[in-house]
Amino acid sequence: MKRLVYYIALPFIYLISLCPFWLLYGISNFMFIVLYYVIGYRKKIIYTNLRNSFPEKPEKEIRCICKTYFRYLCDLILETFKTLTISRKKALEHCYMTEETVSVFNNYYEQNKSAIIVLGHLGNWEWAGNSFALQCKHHLNIIYHPLENIYFNTLIVKIRTRFGNGLIAMKDTFRQMTKNKNECTATAFIADQTPPPENAHWTNFLNQDTPVFKGTELMAARFNYPVIYINVIRIKRGYYKIQVEDVIDDPSKTHSGYISEWHTKKLEELIKQQPETWLWSHRRWKHSRSTQILR
Question: Is the Cβ–Cβ distance between 28 and 238 less than 8 Å?
Fold first, then answer.
């Protein structure tokens, strides 16, 4: 059944990918109406996440962010499909790294230093990975969690590796980073996913107890690579810029928990600046710290 759905959907995905941007966003507008008004995709989860994250905001503003998020989510999905056929020139027109950001990575490359990149599901993280491959000298490896549907997972792999990036399954992170330690690489961690609560670093994120993956911190401590936080900023519809927000140059000088707190608080600051571009439909707070304490 999964195979059948994939092969039915694939031609339509490629047709969408081939659309010019004006038509792509016209389709997105229609998709928004269906998703928001007809299906109501995860609307309760999105609203609850927003209300708990911004208790100080009035109801009208929360509903406005919710609606704007749905519009952005439709854009994001179709922009991701666009990656299948977009040219290198167009890719960099629509998502580029600032000169200062490229300079930061080039300086590490000239010193033959590998780096760890950390970011959240904020802005178009899919386009960001491809822009890195087109502008920077490090070979980028992206840590990802493979999809259960092997057919759609193949599609995601194609999208993320089209311009030369590598992918590392989350469970293989340490082994692959050890294997690559003699190469000059950048390894990207999207660090706002939900980890098993018993092995997580717990903190307060957007006014809620939140488990955080320790992977970024553990790999930084193990390899002592500089940790670079990047932000994918939406300039306007269909256009983004990528910039470095902060750097930990020597992780060996940090104490346990510092890096996890650092990148979580950094993400929180950035979400508050552009709340509609974060992945609110994700069930980020499905675990409770009190449950872990009782265990």
Answer: no
The amino acid that residue 45 corresponds to is I
Q: Note down the domain range covering 264.
A: 2-294
Report the run of H or E that residue 250 belongs to, with start and end: none
Q: Other CB atoms closer than 10 Å to residue 114's CB: what's the count?
A: 22
Does the pTM of the predicted model rise above 0.70?
Answer: yes
Q: Which of 171, 191, 79, 172 is nearest to 126 (CA)?
A: 79
DSSP state letter for 39? I
Question: What pLDDT, in 10s, does the model give residues 114-168?
Answer: 999 999 999 999 999 999 999 999 999 999 988 888 888 999 999 999 999 999 9
Give Rg (Cα) of the chain.
19
In the chain, how many domains are there? 1
Segment 25-82, tens digit of pLDDT: 999 999 999 999 999 999 999 999 999 999 999 999 999 999 999 999 999 999 999 9
Amino acid at 85: T
